[in-house]
Amino acid sequence: MLTVKITKVKLYAYDLHKMKEFYSTQLGFSLIKNTDHYFTVAVGESTITFEKIPASVQKQYHFALNIPCNLFQQAKSWVKERAEILSSAEEDEVYFDTLKAFSCYFYDPEENIIELIARQEVNPKIDAMSFSSEHVLSIGEMNITTDTIYLVANTLKKYGIIPMNNNEICADSLTFMGNYEDGANLLLGPSERIWYFSNKKAIVSPIVIEINNHLLLCLNEKAEFTITRL
Question: What does the pLDDT read at residue 1?
Answer without folding.
Answer: 82
